[in-house]
Design a protein that fits this description.
The protein has 286 residues and is of the alpha/beta class. The chain folds into two domains: 3-202, Nucleotidyltransferase, domain 5; 214-281, no CATH class. It contains eleven helices and six strands. A six-stranded mixed β-sheet has the order 3-2-1-4-5-6. A hairpin with a 5-residue loop joins strand 2 and strand 3. Helix 6 (153-161) crosses helix 7 (171-186) and helix 10 (251-262) crosses helix 11 (267-281).
């Protein structure tokens, strides 16, 4: 997301937060029960409570979150996922200019909210529009407000506004708080626009790889490698070509060499990133 792109996207940008429950920290076991979303430019808001497809309802992940019960869901007039999704789309469409791309912002989006939305949409047969892009405010705030001890939403809110988020860990209050944080940063003279990596649905952030940070991501972007999936495909394709030419080399050393010599990653970083790739992201190579 460049400054020029931000100008084009601003009217179709939304800040959102999800609340979900599950039987473990594995997002694949989790189910969304609340969506809160705010239109960035106008400040208009929308929220919906969803009755999750899991019984019995599991306890909250920690004491910071509410204990979700059938009574609470009924009180909030919870709907099924598909109904909630279509209500949200109808509300969003009232702000999106014709044929415009959409930008969705969440805090820790690339490791939590974006993935959770993809999982629950797949569970219910919903395809996220291919012209929806996601922006992770955690990455942005780490760059714009460096050297903070914590970058949780609550701690950032206290840093900027010297007060707690009212009704924190509820979807809409957290979405509103995040928009206020972003406005506080961009209107304070630090910057005038939201800039940084964006990813469409179904593609994984390069920074999901341990030790692959913003600088390395920028290098790979310059080489037209724009997602983790493309990164892995490029590595495996190059390795297959290398073997075909009878220049066999262990894949670990091959990846380190490619990253350092072809893509300009520092050798120490290339080694750490390679080990992370092999341990988690390259099937059959660990």
């Amino acid at each position: 997301m460049t400054e020029n792109m931000w100008i084009a996207y601003m009217q179709s940008t939304f800040v959102f937060d999800l609340e979900y429950i599950g039987t473990s920290s594995d997002l694949k076991t989790c189910h969304i029960w609340e969506i809160g979303i705010q239109h960035y430019a106008s400040g208009s808001t929308f929220s919906v409570t969803i009755r999750p497809d899991i019984t019995p309802l599991p306890p909250p992940f920690s004491e910071e979150f509410i204990t979700l019960t059938d009574e609470e869901l009924t009180k909030r007039e919870a709907v099924n996922f598909l109904t909630g999704w279509h209500k949200m789309l109808q509300w969003m469409n009232g702000f999106i200019p014709n044929n415009s791309n959409v930008l969705l912002i969440a805090h820790n989006a690339f490791k939590a909210d974006k993935i959770m939305l993809e999982i629950d949409c797949k569970r219910h047969g919903v395809i996220i529009p291919y012209n929806w892009y996601f922006f992770d405010s955690l990455i942005f705030t780490r760059r714009m407000i460096p050297k903070q001890q914590s970058y949780t939403l609550g701690d950032l809110h206290r840093t900027l506004f010297n007060e707690n988020i009212n009704n924190a860990h509820s979807a809409l209050p957290d979405a509103i708080a995040l928009r206020n944080i972003l406005l506080g940063i961009t209107q304070s003279g630090m910057d005038t626009s939201l800039t940084g990596p964006i990813y469409p649905a179904y593609l994984t952030s390069l920074q999901a790889v341990k030790w692959l940070g913003p600088s390395c991501e920028a290098l790979l972007f310059e080489k037209n490698i724009r997602s983790l999936e493309q990164f892995v495909t490029e590595i495996l394709s190059l390795y297959a070509l290398n073997n075909h030419q009878m220049q066999t080399m262990p894949i670990r050393q091959f990846i380190i060499n490619i990253m350092a010599l072809r893509w300009g990653v520092k050798e120490g970083n290339a080694t750490s990133i390679t080990d992370s790739l092999i341990s988690k992201w390259l099937p059959g190579t660990a």
